[in-house]
Design the sequence.
């Protein structure tokens, strides 16, 4: 049995079904309804279940002023993004994305155009998510009959990045981007090279680096220890890369109180090696 817990607006209600809170959307679904009323299931267009640790009061406040067409476009974009990224995204993305779209439209109407301060870095580090954001912007402009500028792509990109980073809100994607920037600088300084950030090798390196950083911040480590002989081979064959990996680990330990295992240093050394070979050859 699905009961109304709180009316958010005419098109959105916070509902409860067998003890589980969910947000239900549909044209007119919140019109003249009260707590404990049965949800009119024939009016349901979209349903999603927020993360268990979500601040429902905050989400309710965000949703109150958002029209149904913007919520529908947000849900459509999230579904599209999950297919393109081949991963499940945070269930809260529908709310945060619709809130972003709503205020972007308001800014556009007021002729206020913002540029993300990390736009260049975002373009380099999150190319896959940026392509999804480009599709999302096209969907917004088509479905909502507007013309939001390309500068919105960077902001949308970070929503898709955040939605994949299932760890403490303390570490937002802006901070993740800053960490990647600093690590790239460590590598460039250590090897005295300039890194071409437009290559597939760099994109693969950043992908590995992101997951490595997520594990560090969540304090999750590989419990399967590599063969000690293999570790020694890597140390002997790639001594400069291993020392560079140690510098990166020191940076993370000093600034984020994380600890890298020998396994992680080995994998990181191998990825650094590929990056260095490509850029030293030029």
Sequence:
């Amino acid at each position: 049995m699905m009961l109304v817990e709180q009316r958010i607006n005419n098109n959105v209600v916070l509902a409860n079904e067998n003890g589980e809170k969910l947000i239900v959307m549909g044209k007119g679904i919140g019109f003249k309804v009260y707590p404990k009323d049965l949800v009119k299931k024939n009016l349901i267009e979209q349903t999603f279940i927020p993360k268990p640790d979500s601040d429902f009061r905050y989400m309710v406040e965000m949703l109150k002023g958002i029209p149904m067409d913007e919520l529908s476009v947000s849900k459509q974009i999230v579904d599209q993004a999950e297919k393109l990224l081949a991963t499940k995204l945070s269930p809260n993305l529908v709310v945060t994305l619709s809130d972003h779209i709503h205020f972007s439209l308001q800014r556009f109407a007021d002729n206020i155009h913002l540029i993300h301060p990390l736009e260049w870095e975002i373009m380099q580090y999150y190319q896959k998510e940026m392509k999804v954001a480009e599709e999302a912007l096209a969907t917004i402009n088509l479905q909502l009959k507007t013309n939001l500028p390309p500068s919105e792509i960077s902001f949308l990109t970070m929503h898709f990045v955040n939605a994949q980073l299932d760890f403490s809100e303390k570490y937002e994607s802006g901070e993740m981007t800053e960490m990647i920037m600093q690590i790239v600088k460590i590598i460039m300084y250590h090897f005295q090279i300039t890194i071409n950030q437009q290559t597939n090798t760099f994109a693969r390196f950043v992908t590995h680096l992101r997951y490595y950083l997520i594990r560090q911040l969540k304090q999750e480590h590989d419990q399967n220890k590599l063969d000690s002989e293999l570790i020694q081979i890597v140390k002997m064959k790639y001594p400069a890369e291993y020392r560079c990996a140690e510098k990166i680990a020191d940076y993370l330990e000093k600034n984020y109180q994380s600890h890298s295992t020998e396994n992680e240093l080995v994998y990181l050394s191998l990825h650094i090696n590929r990056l260095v070979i490509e850029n030293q050859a030029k």
